[in-house]
Design goal:
With 148 residues, the chain is mainly α. It is built from six helices and no strands. Helix 1 runs antiparallel to helix 2 and helix 4 packs parallel to helix 6.
């Protein structure tokens, strides 16, 4: 069965193994470390340190989980910013409009087809539209299947 065409409603990406399985394992590990610490409150000072360290490490793994996702997305947004600035200039959009668009707006504009892009970019720059507002205004969705 062919994949559904990308749209505003279904353009978000989730990796089952990363977003659901790995997060669940790391979250349960964090909760378990806290439960283990509470159950062993009568431990020696060394035991307290070791059990507390388990909580710190479990929390650290959750932080790594989050950062492993946010760092590549920031880099990807920077690449999209460059691509969209070049695309806008190639379509003849004035430098004044391009310079007023922030990275969030440029990331939202990547889904607009070439026919809609100049007017939507001008509207976004003039009215300060958010990424979501820009995406909602797109009539003919241009899929971005390479987003991580």
């Amino acid at each position: 069965m062919p994949a559904k065409p990308q749209s505003f409603q279904n353009h978000g990406r989730y990796d089952f193994w990363y977003h659901w399985v790995l997060f669940f394992i790391l979250f349960i590990n964090f909760v378990y470390s806290i439960v283990f610490y509470v159950q062993h409150m009568d431990a020696t000072p060394r035991g307290h340190f070791q059990n507390g360290w388990l909580i710190i490490m479990a929390f650290g793994l959750l932080v790594i989980f989050i950062k492993l996702r946010t760092y590549p997305l920031k880099v990807q947004d920077r690449v999209i910013r460059l691509e969209e600035q070049l695309r806008l200039r190639g379509l003849g959009v004035s430098e004044d409009v391009v310079s007023k668009l922030n990275i969030d707006q440029l990331v939202g504009l990547r889904f607009a087809p070439d026919e809609e892009l100049p007017s939507l970019a001008a509207l976004a720059a003039r009215e300060g539209l958010s990424r979501k507002q820009i995406k909602e205004k797109i009539n003919n969705w241009r899929a971005d299947n390479w987003r991580v």
